[in-house]
Amino acid sequence: MGDIESMFYQVQVPKVQHKYLRFLWWPGGELESELTEYRMGVHIFGAVSSPSIANYALRAAADHARDKYGPDIERTIETNFYVDDYLKSVPSEEQTLRLVKDVTAALKERGFWLTKFVSNSKLVLKSIPQENRSKDLQTCDLDYDELHVERALGLQWNIENDYFTFSASLDPKPLTRRGILSTVCSLSDPLGFVAPFLLPAKRILREVCQDSSLGWDDVIPEKYLKPWRRWLDDLPILGNLKIPRCVKPKEFGTVTSTQLHMFSDASNEGYGAAAYITLSDNSGRISAVSANGKWRYVQSKENPADIASRGFTSQQMLNSNIWFDGSYFLRGPEELWKNYMPQGVVELEGSTSFAVHPEDEEGNAVDKFLKYYSSWHRLRMAVAVYHRLFHTEI
Known about the structure:
The protein has 14 helices and 14 strands. By secondary structure, it is α+β, with helices and mostly antiparallel strands. The protein has 4 domains: 2-136, no CATH class; 148-246; 255-340, no CATH class; 344-390, no CATH class. The strands form 5 sheets. Strands 4-5-1-6 form a 4-stranded antiparallel β-sheet. A hairpin with a 4-residue loop joins strand 8 and strand 9. Helix 1 (50-69) crosses helix 3 (93-108). The longest helix has 20 residues, at 50-69.
């Protein structure tokens, strides 16, 4: 992980456009002195245009790197930066050493300085000059000290043990609509790890916002205050979460198969989706089974997204295997799918739904569709969804 030093300031503004970045200055901080007008010659933090212009310059650096450093470095610069934050994972320390060297050199040629490096490999950290490591690691004795916890796009990354966690310490906010909004937004969760825990807080915020009798700075009444305080009391438990950063188990050999499994669900409280990557290796170990591109119905108790659409307490999240690991039948042979997904559910406008077994006889399935729908348009939609679910004609 790294950071481009003062990224916006490294991108210059054409001289004819300096006039758009004028500001006034009191020389020496003397407020009684005559004001002096200055113009910025680089893009500034806070200007609406700065992020997109700096990103354009970064992509130009990627294009420039292609011929000299190769397509891998070009692709890394294009896809592994979030504004000025750089995050990349590779299989070996040797690859990392080359990557740090080449990406740093390629960016330097275009005026960007990549610094504040963090790695879970002490070998890699030792190869980086001390002043180019993150602030906490500059004072760390890499031969004896444990590596610090670092922030990675709002998450807490325990480098020594290589897992993500959450900081559950938030500054107290007023018990108002504005205070609730500030608290909810201050818990950064870019990967959706704690989405089920955030849902009850968002539900309270929605109810408060829908209450026309409350202004932004009015103290919320007891009917909102009680569940809000209960959620706040539950918040510190999140600090006990430990989510492995690497999706590949340490004992795994060479990965021979990779599948991505998607789950979704909706309720009156909210809607949610969850994705799980499953791997097989060259030793025959299978961590999951391929869904073969089919949409299937999953019962609520076996659907991880059901948790995201209804909400969980932090203690429930700590005790939940299905949310962090996915449905356990994914780790077994494909025959297990039949036990948990016995039928497809066709859902169309509103809450209208009915079920059809894929094993139904042809005439029986047709009869069910024709008897249920009186609209030709809706009948066509139902047949199309049925065909997509079961890859069969009716």
